[in-house]
Amino acid sequence: MSFITLIILFLATFLLAFLIERLFTKRSKKGKVEKQLVLSRAMHNPIISPNEEREWESQGTFNPGVVQDDFGNAHLLYRAVGSDGVSRIGYSSSTDNVHFDERLPYPVFAMQNPRENFPSELKRHSFILYPSGGSWGGSEDPRIVRIDGRVYVSFNTFDGWDFIRVSVISIDENDFFAKRWNWTRPLFLSPTNEVNKNWVMFPEKIHGKFAILHSVSPEVLVDFVDRLEDLAFGRQTIKSHFGQKKPRESWDSWSRGAGPPPIKTEKGWLVLYHAIDKNEPGRYKLGALLLDLADPRKILARGSEPLLVPDAWYENDWKPGIVYVCGALVKDGTLFVYYGGGDKYVCVASAPLQKVLGTLERV
Questions:
Q1: By residue range, what is the domain housing residue 323?
Q2: Rounded Cα–Cα distance for residues 168 and 232 (Å)
Q3: Helix (H) or strand (E) holding 354
Q4: pLDDT digits (tens, 9 = 90+) for 228-285
Q5: Is 12 domain-assigned?
Q6: CA angle, corner 326, sides to 17 and 255, nearest 5?
Q7: Closest listed residue to residue 76, CA positions, set 139, 123, 142
Q8: Do the bridges between strand 137-147 and strand 86-94 make them parallel or antiparallel, or are there none, so unpaired?
Q9: What's 164's domain CATH number?
Q10: Pseudo-torsion of CA 306, 320, 258, 96, nearest 10°?
């Protein structure tokens, strides 16, 4: 290949990359180019994609939760959608937080009959989870925390639009990291006859109690409970409400809900959340709040701009305009954010934690 040919190929590649970037860069009504502000996407995103050879994750792999072990390794639980339309939970791990080389060929959890709160056999899965022969439903959008030697996974249990409840399972952390999937029976955290989703547990007890963040709009709502079983068996009920009478006059006109479990920092609890700009109603964006460590119902600071916006191709491939974060961790001073792109792919973005905290403005 001649030198001139190499130069032509290089210029063509550069031009193609420029055109792709321009294609997925949006402009506001003022004509100002809007780019990601803080978080930087991994160059080889998406890090996990659907696998057509495995029916249970052939249609989508997205919205991952993450937990870190004592050696700094990242363990992902991601939502996998199969050809039967059912969401199950898959597993993958990484030693550097970016390259996820280990990926199990089977789901590690699935709900067989959500309305009866019954998990399926996990050693081998069945493609027929419902008496009707299969329907859209299952275990969606896992979030993970480690508390007192156990790993807790909360997720949305979906069995039709009239049945969306928040559930939690747990496992001894030694079993989890050894991939012995001895899950407890699922517990419902949200009440019956209500539609709730995107509740997140704090990663440690506050004042000796489990803390659950269950709304960020129109206000931050946190409830405390001695035992999660108290919620499951009706001894205690969380009364959650969501919504705004009118949009905020900011980029996060309509705040949708919390993303990952809160992250404890020296300045407060860092909460990442999803929001929509009224000028761009079809695009989910990622914002940040800072809550008081002792009283997490109190907002200390808020980001005036989004941390991440859906401009990459893999955030617009299946369902356009989606960055949906369910997992985040801090390693060596860097915040790693794991998210679903376009309801199809697992992706990661990162930034120095102090840089993220520096973007928050006191309220």
A1: 20-40+47-362
A2: 10
A3: helix 353-358
A4: 999 999 999 999 987 777 777 889 988 889 999 999 999 999 999 999 999 998 899 9
A5: no
A6: 90
A7: 142
A8: parallel
A9: 2.115.10.20
A10: -80
